[in-house]
Amino acid sequence: MIKSHNYYIQVQELSFLLSLKFILSIIMDIDEFLNDSFEDALRPRDSNTPEADLQALTRAWINERGAPEILPWPPNNLVERVTERIKKQIEKVEELTGDMDPKTNFGLICLQTELERWKYLIRGLVRARIAKIDAHTLHYLSNEDLRSRLSETEIAYATRHQQLLHTHYLSSFLGSFPSTLQNLNDQAGGISMISGPDEDTAVFARGTGSYEEFSGDGGSISVLGRGRDGDDIKDVDRGEVVIARWSDIKEHVERGEMELV
């Protein structure tokens, strides 16, 4: 009985240490891939490996959280591929759950910790995107370019969300208005009722190197900075962190020449 109790305490301590390691690993990995050279990212390699997917997912999560508007859905079926890996990992965990062998149990704890790591990043990415859709649903549905940034599931969610919201408004107060004033996307007088995110929001961004000037060590990129005292062009080297308006660096982020921090 005492041995069983001591084993339970050891497992709990190990679980705590692994959880702490999980949190630190995310912080360390973020710092690690932020220091990766841009040329390494451009170098041909197997982009379907778990390591490459983890790096791409972390980058997408950080950029999505920092950008005021929704970014294009991660390309190359990244989310779908990661989701499939998570499902297989869950199945593996379920297979090992009934085995009380100490060696297998240790491996199970490691698998569960790694599983939570992936799930944390996926949840963070999806929640950041859903929050932006909730805040400006019509803005993303009414613009074809912005609509193309959403996944099929997000489009279905946004459409249903807007339908429910409009129905609620109609039953609450819009129903008593004239029919000409019941539209939520009215643009009478040249003024649109559809609100969007503030693209002039200040963001912190880090240069990763110019794609056009890629020559082995990454070239600097030119960023237009706008201020009260006038506009100026700033050359941002790889690894340099700057604060700028989102509208000024948006294209650089989408091309991979800069990333948000």
Automatic annotation (TrEMBL):
GO annotation terms (biological process): DNA-templated DNA replication; double-strand break repair via break-induced replication
Domain DNA replication complex GINS protein SLD5 C-terminal as annotated: residue spans: 197-261
TM spans (from-to): none
Main location: nucleus
Keyword set, alphabetical order: DNA replication, Nucleus
InterPro entries referenced in this protein's UniProt entry, alphabetically: GINS_A, GINS_bundle-like_dom_sf, GINS_Sld5, SLD5_C, Sld5_GINS_A
Subcellular location: Nucleus
A Pfam family: SLD5_C
Domain GINS subunit: start-end pairs: 91-170
GO cellular component, one term: GINS complex
Oligomer and partners: Component of the GINS complex which is a heterotetramer of SLD5, PSF1, PSF2 and PSF3.
PANTHER family, sorted: DNA REPLICATION COMPLEX GINS PROTEIN SLD5, SLD5 PROTEIN
Role description: The GINS complex plays an essential role in the initiation of DNA replication. Has a role in chromosome segregation.
Family: Belongs to the GINS4/SLD5 family.
Protein known as: DNA replication complex GINS protein SLD5
Organism the protein comes from: Botryotinia fuckeliana (strain B05.10) (Noble rot fungus)
